Amino acid sequence: MEVATVKIGEIVTADSAAFSFQCHALGQPPPLGSLVLTGEADALIYGIVHSASTLPIDRGRQVQALGPEFQDEAALYQQHPELDQLLRTEVQALIAGYGNGSALRYSLPPRPARIHGFVLLASASQVQQFTRDLSFVATLVGADVPHRDHALAACLRLAAAAHDKPRDFLVGAGREAARLLAADAPRLHLLLRQIAP
Amino acid sequence: MALDLHKTARQVSRMGDSLAASSNDRRLRVQAALHLVRDPLQGGKRTVAKIEALAALGAPPRKVGWLTAGLPFDWQQRGLAQAIPAPPAPHEYIAIGADGSQVDLDRHGPAHCFVINIGGMQVRYGRQPAATSWTEPHLFSAPEEMNLSDGDGVKETPIDASLLAVKRQVMEARALADRVAALPAGLPALALLDGTLVLWTLSGGDRSEGRYGDHVRRVFLQDGLLAALDSLRTQRQTPALPFASYISNPRSPEVVNLLRLIACPHEALETSGCARICGRGGVGKRECDAVAQSLMDRDLFEGLLAPGQRSAVFASQSNIVVSDYGTHGVRFCYLNVGDEIARLEMPAWVAQDAASLDLLHALVLDQCAKGRGYPLVLQEAHEQAVVTAADRRSFWTLVEQSLAQRGIPVGGSEKARSKRVRAL
To answer: Is B44 left (phi over 0), alpha (psi -120 to 50) or beta?
Structure first.
């Protein structure tokens, strides 16, 4: 199986159910709903990206508009190369499972992710393997975070592309969502509309 | 209770009244000062030679009671009220700023030590934009770091708060020089420090009765600041490195004081000096107050400089500069950066190199535009260097923990403990 090798960031906060990481590339977080990995090969933690933001490294400082004199954004960044040093992009991920590749568990790992641990973007085959079992859908549906359904829909669309039969995958995922959200028809309706193939 | 704001507010209000009442007199004094700086010869009443003789009275050993600016070298041709527009800034350049902050000595703290934190920012503009920042903490605690020895082991001067501030200034200059030394050749480079280049603290009237001994001056001045300036000078020759120390909201009155000398109506000034003429029992009435009282140089240059323009370059005549700075003698000019009048202090080798001075002028303005009124690299150097109150608390906790782990009894005063606990 092709495994993830590209480091995209470093963990800055971690608890039992979630972690956040600072991206190595400013303003280039992985897309919403991406599957990301952290930890050693025999104890990988899987996270789903549900939020990202770019903000000053020093929380006491405020970003201010740099003035209307710039013709385009490229010129602005060209004239203010220091911005790379002063801003950071931080990404929040929910833990959706853990395992060592062959044995996956769709529950919380015994320990939180390690601070300063590297975060990698899952490869297509890792995404396919992890999302073959739809237990992770329940994690996002039940998560206590804003935009959880948008993150879930994005995750499902990205995952579908990694499967041989994307449509079948989405239909299966839709069924799982319908089962979990049987008591909340409006919410289910919105979610299904977002993932409709 | 801490500060009683109700009582303070009444005092603030009285202060406002008194400031408003004096503002009209002040406006008149500014007008008189502007008039004189534009026409120091007073329509022919004074000669060039007379003004040069008067200005010389401000040089040490000073005959007058004021620290006065030395005349600009080109004043005879261009006058004192020069307002020089900035040449265009090159598109491609590197700017470096260094700044420092500290954890002070704490008499009530758990250990006798201090930290100086030096931070900086380097930005490259143009085709290959890039930025790097750095911060480097230095902890001082060894006996030889806490006391300056005169070499013979006779005199020892303990580092106090004033010397700590001087040490920090020296380290900022050293860090800047080291960074400049690592720059690629070819590109124009601007190097900036924050604050004054004049180490006032080390001067103390008569050399032999100076507050600090020669060994202190040697460590901080000859082997410290001046060595760093030597290094900055040797980095680039044609033109010299545009280097300056930037002072926002400057409060110096040296040019205004020069006007005092020019305005003085007492013929005896050159022989008798200020104190005997206008001091107690003297015949004078401090007539020079009419162009100077409670004015600062920036009040004058607000009236002279349009945004972007700089003043003529004056010379610092403070004792320590004249006696010890040698070829690094401090020169200064004022610059209208848009929102305020800033003061730039530079060594003579920058001021005397027209190309370097032009570049300094243009690049400082460009930095102020990028930093919204204050040089961007200095703003960011400060952000790198700053030690917050929370950092200070964390530092002292770290010290306590480290001592406790080694079984060393943690010092610290009962006063410090009582402030921390605040028990009722």
So the answer is: left
Tell me the C-alpha distance between B345 and B355, whole Å: 17
Beta bridge partners of B345: B245, B332
User: Quick one: average pLDDT of B281-305?
Assistant: 94
* Residue-level pLDDT at B207: 45
Q: Is B203 exposed, middle or buried (0-12, 13-18, 19+ CB in 10 A)?
A: buried
What is the average pLDDT across A61-77?
86
Write phi, then psi, for A50 (nearest 5 degrees).
-120, -5
Residues in Cβ contact with B356 at an 8 Å cutoff, skipping those fewer than 6 apart: B239, B240, B241, B242, B350
Tens-digit pLDDT profile for residues B312-339: 999 999 999 999 999 999 999 999 999 9
**A51-89 burial, b if ≥16 CB within 10 A, otherwise e?**
bbeeeeeeeeeeeeeeeeeeeeeeeebebbbbbbbbbbb
Q: Please give the pLDDT value at position A69.
A: 82
How far lies B136's CA from each of B119, B160, B297, in Å?
6, 22, 36
User: Domain B93-252+296-385 class?
Assistant: alpha beta
From A63's Cα to the closest Cα of chain B, the distance in A is 13
Which is it for strands B93-103 and B189-194: parallel, antiparallel or unpaired?
Answer: parallel
Q: Is the dihedral of CA A142, A147, A149, A152 positive or negative?
A: negative
Distance from A74 to chain B by nearest Cα, in Å? 11
Nearest chain B residue to A79, by CA: B125
Cα gap B100→B193, rounded to integer Å: 10
The structural domains of chain B, with segments of one domain joined by +, span 25-83+254-291, 93-252+296-385
The pair phi, psi for residue B172, each rounded to 5°, is -60, -45
DSSP string, B80-96: S---BPPPPPPSSEEEE
Distance between CA B282 and CA B286 in Å, rounded? Answer: 10
Task: Please report the ipTM that was assigned to this predicted complex.
Answer: 0.72
CA distances from B396 to B43, B104, B404, B411, B421 (A): 64, 11, 12, 11, 15
Tokens of B229: 């300036």
Q: Per the CB < 8 Å rule, is A85 touching B376?
A: no
Is residue A108 within 8 Å of A17, Cβ to Cβ? yes
Closest Cα in chain B, distance from residue A58 (Å)? 9
Shortest CA distance to B260 belongs to which of B5, B119, B67, B26?
A: B67
Nearest to B130 among A61, A64, A81 (CB): A81
In the prediction, which pLDDT does B74 show?
94
Q: What is the pLDDT of residues B99-125, one digit of tens each?
A: 999 999 988 888 889 999 999 999 999
Residues B289 and B250: beta-carbon distance below 8 Å: no
